[in-house]
Design brief:
- The structure is a single chain.
- The protein has 232 residues and is mostly helical.
- It has a domain of 105 residues.
- The chain is built from eleven helices and no strands.
- Helix 8 packs across helix 10, helix 9 crosses helix 10 and helix 10 packs across helix 11.
- The chain is flat and about 95 Å long.
Length: 232
């Protein structure tokens, strides 16, 4: 009742023009509120999708780690001991244990191959023409040209499969973001990255920490981004 009275009072006080503006303002406010809520929800969904992709990448790399290989070897030894104790008894259980052992053996072989590939990858990159040219450019204090970036991208993706694709699946990077990440992948020092990208060291550090925040949705240092890029 009080609400209706108040509305009637407002209607009598306001002119038609003022009432029209009030209605338009209210509708605009509600529309902006709805859009803001929708955008915020979309950003949360996008962030969760990025985090899920990051976790999948990290889990994949974890399977190739020395710790994972050692854990598998320990489990294989336990399975072999258990199979020896079983002897010829319970053939079904024995087959299940042999299957588990075979899977662990396979995982370890893949991990060792991947680690060897990564070691060879760094040798390939460090001996490549573009890397040698990059070192000369840093000595002369000159930045990289478009053809240098294309050649570096080709070399990196040839030894680290889908590196570029993985980066852009996480975040729509600017050319500077991508170039900094490429140089980080080939273990260039921040001061050299600054020279090759024609930016200051402070700008390079800011780019790396900002990328970590954008991808992971939390504050991180430039080193945190470096560690992630090197793990890809």
């Amino acid at each position: 009742m009080l609400y209706l009275c108040a509305m009637n009072l407002i209607m009598t006080i306001l002119t038609d023009r003022e009432l029209y503006l009030l209605i338009i303002g209210s509708v605009t406010y509600v529309a902006l509120f709805v859009v803001t809520v929708k955008n915020s929800r979309q950003k949360v969904i996008q962030l969760q999708e990025r985090i899920n992709k990051v976790r999948a990448m990290q889990e994949e790399q974890q399977t190739f780690s020395r710790q994972s290989i050692e854990a598998n070897e320990k489990r294989i030894a336990e399975l072999e001991s258990l199979m020896q104790k079983l002897g010829d008894e319970n053939s079904m259980l024995r087959l299940e244990l042999e299957e588990k052992k075979a899977r662990l053996d396979y995982d370890n072989r893949l991990a060792m191959i991947e680690n060897e590939k990564r070691q060879q990858a760094e040798t390939i990159i460090f001996s490549s023409d573009v890397y040698m040219r990059m070192k000369k450019l840093t000595d002369m204090g000159r930045s990289m040209k478009d053809e240098d970036w294309r050649e570096l991208e080709q070399v990196v993706n040839s030894v680290y499969s889908s590196f570029t694709e993985r980066l852009f699946s996480l975040y729509r990077m600017t050319p500077q973001d991508y170039h900094v990440s490429l140089l980080t992948k080939v273990r260039m020092q921040p001061r050299d990255i600054a020279v090759l990208t024609a930016h200051s060291k402070e700008s390079v550090a800011s780019t790396r920490s900002r990328l970590y925040t954008k991808v992971f949705g939390e504050k991180g240092s430039s080193k945190d981004w470096d560690d992630f890029v090197l793990s890809l």
